[in-house]
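User: Please predict the structure of the protein below. I'd like the answer in structure-token form so I can feed it into my own downstream comparison script.

Assistant: Understood. Taking the following sequence of 289 residues as input:
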Amino acid sequence: MLDPRKLHLLRELSRRGTIAAVAEAVAFTPSAVSQQLSALEKEAGVPLLERTGRTVALTPAGHLLVEHAQAVLEQLERASAALAGVRGGLSGPLRVGAFPTAARVLLPPALADLTRAHPGLVPMLSEIDPADVSAALGAGELDVALVHEYDFVPPVTDPSLETEPLFSEPIYLTNRPSIAAAAADPWIAAKPGTLCYTMTIRACQAAGFDPLVRHHLDDFDTVLAFAAAGHGIALVPRLAALAPPPEVRLTRLPLSRRTLAAFRRGYEEHPAIRAAVAAFRSASTLLPV
């Protein structure tokens, strides 16, 4: 019989690419991960990994088993959700991930409502970039997370995750009437590799130019402070610009950022996840967007 815990490690290896990355994600030592994967190979009766020096790759049989492992792990999630549904009142930790603006604006009232309705539930919040959410949910580091999508940036799909849309908000441009009017200006953007950075670059390219990014800043309060001091032009979502400095003029653009709740596939009917998503949605109806 194949061990689901070892299947989980194999799935993580297919996602993360190295034994060391899997070990860090699941809080094991690299040698313990290697031992578990070797034991899984014995259970499977076929080679699952190809080892070349310090690198490890999945064999065709390994890739095949990962596909089946995904289905098995989803069924186990559904079983866990079903059992939680018959136990009665919700209790225990609920690990929530969120990007900074959602953590600051949406989650304080949402988590307050959640704990009032379910006093035994203990929400535990971690700020996280949406690009890292898939790995954190897959590794069991988070139970539910808030992620976002931008125009000009195709959504990142992960077959092991489910998402539910919550709300949409407009994007604003600082101190210029249009993106095209800022073609010669220095720009402020998030760090490369983030969705916010990609959105800024592609929005400018759609206006006919490649922006000169002078500052890479992830915190929107800092972005607005730099814009107020004349250090560059930026695109900011509505939730990040509820109280801009008086020196910053905001022009609403026909662009949007959409926020979604994300969780592991098979976990969608878990009562704690349903309660959390309901609290997020309720709080979102009160947002000034």
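That's the full token string. The CA atoms of residues 50 and 57 lie 5 Å apart.
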